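Homework help board

Subject: predicted structure for assignment chain

Our instructor gave us this sequence and asked us to write out the predicted structure in token form, then describe one feature. I got the tokens but I'm not sure how to describe them. Can anyone check?
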Amino acid sequence: MTTTQPPEPARWQFWIDRGGTFTDVVGKRPDGQLVTHKLLSDNPEQYRDAAVAGIRHLLGLAPGAPVTPELVECVKMGTTVATNALLERKGEPTLLVTTQGFRDALRIAYQNRPRIFDRHIVLPELLYSRVVEAQERIGAHGDVIEPLDEEHLKECLWGAYDAGLRSVAIVFMHGYRYAQHEQVAARLARQAGFTQVSTSHQTSPMMKFVGRGDTTVVDAYLSPILRRYVEQVAGEMPGVKLFFMQSSGGLTDAQVFQGKDAILSGPAGGIVGMARTAGLAGHDKVIGFDMGGTSTDVSHYAGEFEREFETQVAGVRMRAPMMSIHTVAAGGGSILGFDGARFRVGPESAGANPGPASYRRGGPLAVTDANVMVGKIQPAHFPKVFGHAANEALDRDVVGQKFAQLAVQSGRSQEDVAHGFIQIAVQQMANAIKKISVARGYDVTRYTLQCFGGAGGQHACLVADALGMTRVFVHPLAGVLSAYGMGLADQNVIREQAVETRLVPNALAGIEATLEQLATIARTELERQQVGSGTAVVHRRVHVRYEGSDSALIVPFGSLAEITAAFENAYRQRFAFRMQGKGLVVEAVSVEAVVPGDAPVEPRHALQPEREVPRRSTVRMYTGGVDGVPVWHDAALVVREDLRPGDVIPGPAIIAEKNATTIVEPGWEAALTDLDHLLLNRRVARAVQHAVGTTVDPVLLEVFNNLFMNIAEQMGLQLQNTAHSVNIKERLDFSCALFDTAGNLIANAPHMPVHLGSMGESIKTVIRENAGNMQPGDVYVLNDPYHGGTHLPDITVITPVYLADEVTPTFYVGSRGHQADVGGVTPGSMPPFST
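My token output:
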């Protein structure tokens, strides 16, 4: 006789995004209904950990009560614990073990100069606190130049252990491919008692010593912090399955969550939520606009997640798969300032503690306060989590007092000051979107802007206007979409390996064999984690670049013709040209094993006949009208819960809900779809404003400064990514700038000061020598030191730019770069006796 096991009773699931300012919790009840909760991430007077406190709140448990597996099936979570530890340099004290002679290689690194005009350069604080040089060396082709001196290394490791270090990063030359010395060093470190051992061949098996080394150090520096946090959370939820979101956009078991994979843990959930909900709503091309309290994350999605395998975070180079996200320091908590000439927004943030002035903790004015001042945030419809008892609304009075002080200083009205700060923040966010769309060859006007995050809806229409976009999509869980994305994410394992081989027919078999080895490893890891119930799907990709260049693009593996065509199409879209006749190199290969996550289940509703939408009240809102001129408007205050599918809300209006506020600007219209989604469309053509008097207007001065600077930065990025010369792509010995019709400097990217100080003379020389003869499409090349050149190797390319039907140039762009094979008294143009 056989007996059947009764089905397991349905239990809760929790999906959590622990952000820098707020922690968002989405709970899936046993009956399948979703409930949400938002609380401050840092509120030590009320709770130890916001994520666990949010779970207890939704379960109705008392503070300190255990969360048991009888109640909760699983918790899926993204966290900023690792990110904050990296930013604040509060990770585990770490030992670096590297090849003899390379102790300073990670400190020297590359010649990036992010703050080139600072008179006092403050280098990022090193993550490792001690260095051991191992007496060993393996050559680039695997030949053992110097055997590893194990006794010497053992003695050094014991010394570091006795000094209190417990975390070690092991990075040897060519260790990504020939790992035998790293493996021995790891064994000796564990024997010495080190509890965290990170080796470069396991952490980042890719070329480039600096990126590989930094990634390994980050892993050793952050993994112990993560492990303690995981143990803390798991200790309050004994027996409950716990998963964490990785920077790559996939979930992993908490016990194998590594520091190198945690940097974008929270924002990655937002991109997953964006992609899944946009697909359900029929939007196949979306720009993600995730505006939180501390910063804004923007992303691009057109059917496939975009990932970066090399990036820089908090001054540290990382070679690990991460969602392609561009972050700008413009969030609801970005601090507002006036220096007597220009209004400034950020980059400093008020954070969660003390937070913006309206948070009742004595904080400074921030973007959130500007929206309170102009009426776009109504305190009565904002989470009441402020004050000593965490139950008060935003403080409108203190906001008015602080803006009154700024109004006196700037000679403008309170509301005009606040509106000006919002304009600047919007332009900063629009520029960030251009970097992940326009700069990569995507026509952003053909996309839908999907806004989420607590502050996204407050600025969505304005950001769309700044980009020429006409459609905005707002999901009902937009205020907690990153947390929602945790519940919809796939469970994945990504493995990569450097191969560095020319893309020729007889190389494909070896590339395919390497991919199969990685696929087996990835599948085995998923099975070991025992995650999900679906079948793993494996995606195989190759990282391809032109010979001599440094910009690898990732395309699917296939036949030689398929790989070549995919790469050339991607390269042309990104850089607007192809290098005819250049050979291709497969720099690395990667596989992704995926167990698909749950699809969003959202019922469709019948559209109701149009009606007069119920409004809770009519409020005053200061914003630009259809003509672009800011004035006070009567705006309908609508609560999302009062709406039904088919309702249409013309702007100006404020749509308030539990976790977010959406502003419908004048000229825009919001409609509630059959999926309960808000879709905003511009119904009145946007007025084009022309700048007048930007020299005296502190708002326009900052807006146009950001616009012009963004153009120069995009020029530099294209030049660096398409260059063959080490002088350009690694030494960064180049500069880009914009000039007016007289050859005067308008804006320059933070490149080489010696170039920028004299490039204007080169522009003026070209104008003087070619007056009346210039035509659209002309390009001029100059390296004369007596006409604005610096020295002979610095070659300047000058292009006149014509707008519309103008017969004379509207402005000029100039790019100057050091060519090693031109000028100089020795080969390479940089003799050792140069001054």
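Reply (TA_rk): Your tokens look well-formed. For the description, you could write something like this. The longest helix spans residues 209-236. That's the kind of observation they're looking for.
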